[in-house]
Design a protein that fits this description.
- There is one protein chain.
- With about 375 residues, this protein is of the alpha+beta class.
- It folds into two domains: about 220 residues, no CATH class; about 150 residues, 2-Layer Sandwich (Alpha-Beta Plaits).
- Helix content is about 60%, strand content about 5%.
- It is built from 14 helices and five strands.
- Helix 14 links the parallel strand 4 and strand 5.
- Helix 2 runs antiparallel to helix 4, helix 2 packs parallel to helix 5 and helix 7 runs parallel beside helix 9.
- The longest helix is centred in the middle third of the chain and has 37 residues.
- The protein is elongated and about 95 Å long.
- It starts with a helix and ends with a strand.
- Keywords: Membrane, Nucleotidyltransferase, Transferase, Transmembrane, Transmembrane helix.
- InterPro entries: Diguanylate_Cyclase, GGDEF_dom, Nucleotide_cyclase, Rev_trsase/Diguanyl_cyclase.
- GO terms for molecular function: diguanylate cyclase activity.
- It comes from Crenobacter oryzisoli.
- This is diguanylate cyclase.
Length: about 375
């Protein structure tokens, strides 16, 4: 276990400041990614699938000219028809692939993108194996054998985990091995072994490149979505999280509660003890709240001393009970030793009859002000 940790730390030294030791598991398996991270990665994968497909759609038919000039009839005609079919398939992928933000859709796009040239390679290899080519024709025919190398190198432009890269690479490697069976008796085994080893090497390089891209995205997303002082989600990322989790709750007809928390008399802390002590109070409060909430709950810094708590699969009364327990537990200490208190307003999608996150936040905000007017240090979930 210690040896594994040391190896990972050494590897992380190659990516200084990009990922922490705890985040390395995000480079291995996609199921561990948080929703905002997944959403941004899906967008990148889909855009690069469309870019790659557009490039193939433009370049694939251009090679027909080379085939006509160098290959015998009817081989060049058969390959030309095959190229036109592949071009149509690439064009269809560019025009009709959905962009719904789902990881499954991104996977479908990548699978289709790499399935088209893989099938092209197998069929073209079968056609070429029935002809004895010589001279420049043989050189052009040999060029078709390099397509798997191009495909494996292409994985490097996608931000993928190690598991994803190996999964998508497997069909390409299998196709290269399957092509061997078309002319089993004529295969030079030393040459085939060397080429297959090179394919494995390319797979490893592409995996490292994809993981490096993913590590860079992780670092950028972490910087973009978190508040630098408290480590909670920023307001902008909180709005995205509200939209994502409310959509999920609506699809599953499950409760979703929003709590608006405002620290009482926070301005007096800054005025009496300075902004440095005020920052410590904010950090102390967020640590306490994060520790007391469930792992799937989310804390968002909405304003200066205002925080939004997103409580998944939690109805109004469950949320009120949990937050009352949090309030009784204590939110931290003032510099003078007094307890930090907060006014809290709660709203829930089913109880308040709305699936609009802005309306939900407004209701929680209004109830927080009712708590202020009622004497502070309390929570309100009605009115």
């Amino acid at each position: 276990m210690l040896t594994t940790k040391i190896i990972w730390q050494r590897l992380l030294g190659l990516l200084p400041g990009e990922v922490t030791l705890n985040e390395t598991r995000w480079l291995i398996r996609p199921c561990l990614h948080m929703p905002l991270m997944e959403q941004r990665r899906v967008r990148m994968i889909v855009n690069r699938v469309r870019l790659f497909a557009t490039l193939f759609a433009a370049l694939t038919p251009l090679w027909i000219i080379v085939d006509v000039l160098t290959l015998p009839f009817p081989l060049w005609l058969q390959l030309a028809i095959l190229r036109l079919l592949a071009t149509i398939a690439f064009g269809t992928l560019v025009m009709w692939h959905p962009q719904d933000g789902r990881l499954a859709t991104a996977y479908q796009g990548m699978a289709t993108l790499f399935a088209i040239p893989t099938l092209f390679y197998l069929i073209s290899h079968l056609l070429l194996s029935h002809h004895q080519l010589q001279g420049i024709s043989a050189a052009i025919g040999t060029g078709y054998a390099f397509l798997p190398f191009v495909l494996l190198a292409g994985f490097a432009i996608f931000p993928l985990t190690l598991f994803e890269t190996l999964t998508f690479s497997a069909p390409v490697l299998c196709a290269y091995a399957l092509a061997l069976m078309f002319n089993w008796e004529e295969v030079s085994w030393p040459s085939f072994g060397g080429q297959f080893w090179l394919l494995f090497l390319l797979t490893g390089v592409a995996s490292l490149a994809s993981m490096s891209q993913l590590a860079f995205i992780i670092a950028l997303v972490n910087q973009a979505i978190h508040d630098p002082l408290t480590g909670t989600f920023s307001r902008r990322s909180g709005e995205e999280m509200l939209n994502l989790h409310l959509s999920f709750a609506r699809r599953n007809n499950s409760p979703f509660t929003v709590a608006f928390l405002d620290i009482d008399h926070f301005k007096s802390i800054n005025d009496r003890f300075g902004h440095e002590f005020g920052d410590r109070v904010l950090q102390q409060l967020t640590q306490t709240v994060t520790h007391c909430l469930r792992r799937g709950d989310i804390v968002v810094r909405w304003g200066g001393e205002e925080f939004l708590l997103l409580l998944n699969n939690t109805d109004l009364h469950q949320a009120a009970h949990a937050l009352e327990r949090l309030r009784q537990h204590g939110l931290g200490m003032h510099p003078d030793g007094r307890q930090i208190t907060a006014s809290i307003g709660i709203a829930e999608r089913i109880a308040d009859g709305t699936d609009d996150w802005k309306v939900l936040v407004e209701k929680a905000d209004t109830r927080m002000y009712l708590a202020k007017q009622g004497g502070r240090d309390r929570l309100v979930f009605e009115g």
